[in-house]
Amino acid sequence: MRMKTYLDFKPYRLLAIFAAATAFFACDKVGTDGPDPEFTLITPVESGMKGLYILNEGGLGSNNSTLDYVDLERGRYYSNYFAQQNPDMPLALGDVGNDMLLTDDYLIIVLNGSGLVEIADAATARHITQITVPQGRNIIREGDFLYVTSWAENGSLYRISMSDWTTSRVSVGYEPEGLHCHDGKIYVLNSGGKHFETGEYQQTISVVDTESFTVEKTVETGHYNLSDIICMGDVEYVNSLGNYGDDLGSVFSYNRVNDATSVILDHSIANWCLYDGILYTQSTTYDASWNPVVSYGKIENGTFSDGAWFDTDAVKISNCYGLSANPSNGDFVITDAGDYVTPGSVYYFTSAGSPVWSATAGVCPSKIVWIE
Amino acid sequence: MFLLSLVMLAMLEATDTLSASQVSTYRFESPAVQTISSGRISSIPAYSVPDILRYSTGLQIKDYGGLGGLKTINVRALGSQHTGVFIDGVKISNIQNGQVDLGRYSVEDLESISVVNAHSFSLLQSASELASSSTVYLQTKTPDFSRPYDITLKGGYGSFDTGSAFLSAAVRLSRRAYLKFSGDFRHTDGDYPYTYTAASGTDTTARRENSDLNSLHLEPALYIRSGKSDWQIKGYWFHSDRGLPGPVIRSAGEFRNGNRQRDDNTFIQGSYRYSGDALAVKILGKYSYDYCNYLQDTVKNQSVSYQNLHYYQQEGYFSASAAYRTAGLSCSIATDQIFSHLRSDVTGMSDKFRWNSLLAAQANYRYRNLSAGASAVWSHSSDRDGRRYDAFSPYVSLQYSPGRFRLLLYWKNSFRLPTFNELYYVAYSSANVVHALEPEKTDQFDFTAAYSGSAGIWSGNFKADIYYNITRDKIVWLPIANQFVWSALNYGLVHGYGWDFSADNTLRAADFSLSWLFNYTYERAGDMSDPSSQWYGGQIAYVPLHSISSTLALRWYDWLFSANFIWNSTRFRSSANIASEALEAYANLDLMLSKRFFGFITAALSVSNVTDTGYEIVSRYPMPGTSFRLSLKFEFK
User: Which ipTM was obtained for this model?
Assistant: First the structure.
């Protein structure tokens, strides 16, 4: 039972509003019933992947982080799927979902505002357990452990054992964001995003040894406010957000062996995804009067090239908030956060960049995981 | 009886501290004014001003729940910062965020509360009054010079350990001078239970935590009356310490919100009025010092970051207005000078200063039943860092008053300046993000018809409004550069229209009276900010399409019974008008029974939210269920 959207706004209806008063008890029914989760129909896609989960961040303090499930093969889009699958949880998924991971039989969601990590069943999104991790940001799995960056206690890396769900913590730099593990070492990016007032934007990567779970070394990169890391072969690509002032940030490569860095792009990117050795990027920069300038591009073999890789005439994205490539065939999903307050949109494109379907997501759709 | 007759008379009158004989000359009756006077105020169970304002048409109250929860009002969906709130004619200012927390003002000492769409027809208005899109007047009780003293004591206690004490003592010093002292203390634990219902139908009940409040308010005032002149000097001190319980969100185990807010508000204000036969003058002055401390502690809750912010706001205010009238034509000029200073330890807002200078002119021409009015306000403001704003806002009106009818047509253009928060506070960013922010502008078009009549023991006032308004360059917070850098932008556009209806009927006999006020408001406020958005035109957040408020008071000898009812239709968290964004419609009923003993003691028992309805006005901030309160009041005159 979906509530109907209110009438379109037309100023000339001024004269008709007296009539409207007679019908004013009509439009209050809200709610869902029945065990079958609701969905809307989209164009089915045969891509080799069964579907995807989309995590909607929601707004801070609004408890409106939601999970959408897309059944690609059958062409079904399930909004608010976690709440539908867990009708006995009155506060549903929670507050500010920042990251999501699908591993083994688990769907794992980091809820920053709620201060916990939700462990759900990968196939059904049914709640299994929850783990306290204050101000969690990004998550990876390495071996039998989950590693979560956290802003608590001036910057932490939490480790969660997947056998008994116990946690331990190690301090890293201020406001750690993205992380990546290679050969027993976790590379944690420190942003310092909340320490700008004291001029303490971080320029470091904390390297944590997984055996001892201690910080082995802290690498000075010379770039401010590090946010995302993606690995391609032997090279780590790092996104630096700059100081939102004279330093526009950058994308640079980082060599794990000798800690050398090399600039690839002279401004930060907002979203990226990797497919078949190519990093697809989306950037928002600002002109002198703070009007946004949106651009798309690719990073291939360490070189950036400008240009959209999807049909920007067919689909207008107002505020790109998430980007992901179908690991099976290189199709794209782009999420649009709109005005960041109302529910956003999800667009599915073929690998060639032609639009296939779109759907209404939750508030601030950001992270995507693919289901085989 | 006297109080109830006041209720009726006040329906069409604006408030002013001029004495009754002086009032008629410099003010014209306007149906744009809704007044709730002390008689009705005392028949509604109320802890603070917003509990009373609910019984007006065309406004929304944002209430975060409980005695300590922030309460702001929004008239006709123009935005709360467009509503000027005036205590005894002087504006309450908050240069930091433009919000006035009406929950701080108790109703015990109020003579009347008025809501005015656009502005009233008083000639002696300050430029600040003329500059507001709409106004709320809180008029404190002024002494009755015919009595040598006037003492009121009141104490109340109720659910959730909520207690209050009020004292007002006034003494006539001479034929011309009256001294008054009033004060109140309020306390609540505020730990009321609330219930959330899961989709499966199971209820979870929890209690609000860290929702306590202690507040103390002291206010001395001196009134001097001498022929056509009127002086008033008043001091004000308010202190409060409250817990901020925060939104109800999913949280890990021991999650407790420990945020605290401490306030000290001090001001001294003085006014002088001269009301001659053809000339009237009003001079106002005020100095205020406001301190606010916001503490977000991580001791109990690691899920937030530590913040300990201090705000110190000082304001100097000077206003002068003069009016001149002849048989048909009357006119006035007014100027306000406002000096605001804000010091805080918030990044980018260390030390800010603004000078705002307002100049206004008003003219009104009356011919038989017809009167035409016009006014204009010119505002110049400059901040120390060089930002300047100049704005001009006109108003025109036409009123026709045949017999007991009043028909009013007006257009008002107005604006509000960006607040210091909007200009200087950029979350998680360097202060390098500087952009041009323009004042928010509104246009209001309104047609009001009112009728007042009486026959035998019946008397009644009826009012219907139809309006259209536009809010341009609405200041909205949006992320700039990335999700951490939020900044205020002139992004929004809202078109609104609606109508409201109010009927106030009274039956009155010697030892009996029955009064019934019924208000209905229809309001459509469409978000027209982004034509490419799929939510284009959606009803903006928190504005119900329909709302009803009604109060019924029955007085029989020394007994008074009242029933007070509120109903709001579904509202939405955002302009996406879909089920997942909806806040359910709700109804609330409050009952009160009181009896007067020995002519000077009044005992009252009230029950609020009789049906124990669980509802939210602001998303994730549950409102209290059923609560009780017993009070005793002593009056010596």
Answer: 0.86
